[in-house]
Design goal:
four-stranded antiparallel sheet; 2 domains; OB fold (Dihydrolipoamide Acetyltransferase, E2P); 2 helices; 10 strands
Length: 151
């Protein structure tokens, strides 16, 4: 089969309503063609199109809102150094390492983050007082998730 015959087959299939064609010749040559079927969306008649007028809106310049938390953001935040499970105490019946109001020094153990069956003690990076514990005991934490706020 030469190039002109193949080209004629392609053109004929393109002009026909056939979607798929498989030909096998006695000499072992096989030809398979398949049309890409893009969904045909019929045009919407113009009389069914409706236009809606939308009243103009005045856009007022927004005044910046002062957030009280932003002013109090002089906290130092201890973030999770890994993905794992947060534990506030060394065992289920033990007391938590720290609570809101606890005074901590750099290097004090704040909690444990369990990752892949390893218990990783998280130490304070700052001196100060625990203002907020940001997660609950047993919660999953992601890398960089705030665990504690220290003032």
């Amino acid at each position: 089969m030469n190039y002109d015959d193949i080209k004629k087959l392609i053109d004929d299939m393109g002009n026909s309503k056939i979607d798929e064609l498989n030909i096998e010749f006695p000499d072992g040559i096989k030809i398979s063609m398949k049309k890409d079927k893009a969904p045909v969306v019929p045009p919407i008649p113009q009389e069914t199109v409706q236009y809606i007028s939308v009243p103009e809106r005045k856009v007022e310049k927004a005044e910046p809102v002062e957030n009280k938390e932003e002013k109090q953001e002089d906290y130092k935040i201890v973030k999770s150094p890994m993905v794992g499970t947060f534990y506030s105490k060394s065992s289920p019946d033990a007391k938590p390492y720290v609570q809101v109001g606890s005074k901590v020094k750099k290097g004090d153990i704040l909690c444990i983050v369990e990752a892949m069956k390893l218990m990783n003690e998280i130490e304070s990076e700052f001196d100060g007082e625990i203002v907020e514990v940001c997660v609950n005991d047993g919660d999953m934490v992601d890398y960089g998730k705030p665990l504690f706020k220290i003032k």
